[in-house]
Design brief:
CATH architecture: Roll
Number of domains: 1
Order of helices and strands: HHHEEHEEEE
Strand order of the largest sheet: 2-1-6-5-4-3
CATH class: Alpha Beta
Helix content: 10-25%
CATH topology: Nuclear Transport Factor 2, Chain: A
Distance between the termini: 33 Å
Structural class: alpha+beta
Strand content: over 45%
Length: 122
């Protein structure tokens, strides 16, 4: 499978972090360009989200602990990668989740096709 340069690894990391930064996560134009037309997500809560819901999410602060823990890139096919990591987000209490994102390469760059968050008891 593919080997990635440090620059490519950094790009994948920055793409994932952009999903947590309010200035990019709630920028409709940015997210519209980032998500595939058929994007969907299984949230940490167990709820399923579709692309239109992701694009219309209201602005909010996200108190995530960076850097993302256990960040790994798993090549699936020449133009598909699975990113996995552990998120730690502080709401009323600390919420820890296993995260996975499926990225597909298109002519205009990497696009997010699927994301899943699974609750973890710490």
């Amino acid at each position: 499978m593919a080997k990635f340069t440090d620059e490519e690894k950094n790009r994948f990391y920055e793409l994932e972090v952009s999903l947590w930064k309010p200035e990019t996560r709630f920028d409709r134009d940015y997210m519209d360009n980032l998500l595939t037309e058929d994007f969907f997500e299984f949230g940490r809560s167990g709820r399923t989200y579709r692309r239109d819901e992701a694009l219309s999410a209201p602005m909010q602060e996200i108190d995530i602990d960076l850097p993302l823990r256990e960040f790994q890139i798993h090549p699936v096919a020449p133009d598909v990668v699975l990113i996995t990591y552990v998120s730690e987000v502080q709401y009323e209490q600390l919420e820890v989740g296993n995260r996975s994102s499926l990225w597909v390469k298109r002519d205009d760059g990497w696009k997010l096709r699927f994301h899943q968050g699974t609750a973890v008891e710490e």
